[in-house]
Specification:
With 117 residues, this protein is mainly alpha-helical. It is built from 2 helices and 2 strands; from the N terminus they run ααββ.
Length: 117
């Protein structure tokens, strides 16, 4: 006996002769559902592969660019910021604030224009 003949002996899903089988509507519906599921699964897998390849090619083809803009507005122009904070039982002479902009200009112990309500 060859190896293939021995494998056929231990086959759990042996073929049944066609004259002993009978087709049903339920079986036909199951097969149609399985085919539709198979087609949808393959279509989704193809779409996922296409999206992955598209994203990968976009990532690999991107060129980093840096851009620097010079602010030509007058240096006297400042952003007005208003906020209201309530300090109970603290005299106004003890309240101050520190601030710093993105260019590193900082002001420490700013107490002008801090108005009590």
């Amino acid at each position: 006996m060859s190896i293939f003949q021995r494998l056929k002996l231990i086959d759990l899903y042996k073929k049944v002769p066609h004259d002993l089988t009978e087709g049903t509507y339920g079986g036909a519906i199951c097969i149609i559902v399985i085919y539709i599921y198979f087609i949808v699964s393959i279509s989704c897998a193809v779409i996922m592969i296409m999206l992955f390849i598209s994203s990968l090619s976009e990532y690999l083809s991107s060129v980093p660019a840096s851009q620097m803009l010079i602010d030509d507005s007058p240096s006297e122009t400042k952003l007005r910021v208003e906020y209201h904070i309530l300090f109970n039982k603290v005299p106004c002479s003890l309240i101050y604030m520190d601030y710093q902009d993105v260019l590193g200009f900082s002001v420490v112990f700013y107490y002008k224009n801090l108005l009590p309500l």
